[in-house]
Description:
Blueprint: E1 7-9, E2 12-15, H1 19-38, E3 47-50, E4 65-66, H2 69-74, E5 85-88, E6 91-97, E7 102-104, E8 118-120, H3 122-135, E9 139-141, E10 146-152, E11 155-161, E12 164-166, E13 172-177, E14 181-183, E15 186-189, H4 196-204, E16 216-225, E17 235-241, E18 250-258, E19 261-269, H5 279-287, H6 290-296, E20 300-310, E21 321-322, E22 325-327, H7 343-363, H8 368-379, H9 382-389, H10 393-396, H11 401-413, H12 421-434, H13 453-458, E23 472-473, H14 476-490, H15 495-498, E24 504-507, E25 513-516, H16 526-530, E26 537-538
Helix pairs in contact: 1-3, 1-7, 7-8
The structure holds iron/sulfur cluster.
Amino acid sequence: MVQDRESLEFDIVFIGAGPANLASAIHLQRLLKRHNSLSANKIDPAIAVIDKGRYAGAHLLSGALIDPRALDEFFPDYRERGCPVEATVSNEHLWYLTAKRKFPFLFCPEPFSNKGNIVVSLSRLGSWMAEEAEKEGIQFFFNTAAAQPYVEKGRVAGILTDDKGIDRNGQKKPNFEAGLLLKTKVAVIGEGSDGSFHRKVCEHFPTALETAPQRYETGVKESWRIPPGRVIAGEVHQMFGYPLPTETYGGGWLYAFSPTLLSLGFVTSLEPDSPVCDPHRNLQRFKEHPLLAKILEGGSMIESGARTITSGGADAMPALYGSGFLVTGESAGLVNMQRHKGIHLSMKSGILAAETLFESLLHDDFSSDRLKSYSDMFKESWAYDELHAARNYRKAFDGGLYSGLLQTGLQLKFPGLSIAEGLGKQLKKKTVATSKKPAIESFTPDGRLTFSKTESLYRSGTMHEENQPCHLFIKPEDIEEICLTKCALEFANPCRHFCPAQVYEIIDYPRPELKLNPSNCLHCKTCETVDPYGIITWIPPEGGGGPGYKLS
Ligand code: SF4
């Protein structure tokens, strides 16, 4: 109940401490400081950032090979101030892989090139940016999930945070603490891919979602320590082909932070009409390729994790503003799949959101008309131009790898071109009709190069309070009528495969039963985004639960 909650008042609350919102908070605070140093009309708003992770960067996971363009704009002295740049790209390779061989591309087309880009750990970068934001005077609430929007007089007027201390049956435990009501003039939603708060806001304001449906891929990532002498700092390999069939979109990467520390991972496309893939398995198979296996031999995997990536591009961008809220970063789907990048676009959205918020504070005007300027500025920015030019890249691969490569070649010459969307859809339909049930062959990890989901989970730092309500909600009647009957027949329960943390299990004896292991959850959101019947709802567990990334 709202009235039972302690209420705190803010001017601006950022939901999610990712690169978009941290860039926004830092930039806003600097604009305010500059204004206050020059003007007698001082503005001193209360600004907070809330995040469901237990510390800054705990839930941040990415490649991450960053185009520093936005970082240069709002933080030109980031290197001098100690930003954790692991390396600058020193050499890059683009490969097509078969099971045993590798074929280099003779040149790296410009959109795929990483010349001048920087290799970072997004988790470390987020942690550093949060420290910088704190130094600027921003207040942080970690361990705090945004459970529900508080809507008053037709606008988002606050955030209801999660209750703590509820047991698995919904009863209050002795340590019960009611969530807070954080009242705010503007809520800035930057939760990353498939944000649960954004979904709830869109239930109140359905027009915020009047776009093409969002699409998602799942990235599974590992960090490795390896013996020296195999790679150099800043070495970048991007690969496609093995182990995916040509009809499935995806690919892998290996980036060297240093001669002995690597980031590697694999992205797999999963869609509700063909959810029959195992992204964790694909990463393990990818590492068995001789190119990777040779580099990794004798090394040790030190961290693992997974996250969905939005891939709908410009066509699937939701409204960037609404009554009392702005949407930033990957919550707005700001990923350029052609470049395999989005952090620079996220940061740019944060910068522009900060400029709008500054004007709102200056004029004490938080109306939708004022907030709209964020959306207008974004659509006139280099970030939108980049996103728009790449809008048909991902769609081109709906017809499979060869159709995708052909169209990508043409798109490089004629940005935005789409010549075979219809062909792609036809091929996709045929593929789905013949491959509903997963043909996932058995695989035995060796525990040195390849790992089971349980071993990978152990290295993700994931933990949850065990005695709390299950945060994966499926109606009991849907479990009976869909999971154990329709889905079992049509897709053979693909949740058992696509979840990288083995949260979903089907027990056959003494009677079929769906068993959930929610405390394993990596918060990757694959299940909610690819469930073919749309019956899984992911709600935030008690704040502080989830992965504990440090290097991802
Ligand atoms: Fe990801 Fe958790 Fe869903 Fe598994 S249950 S797919 S880890 S969000």
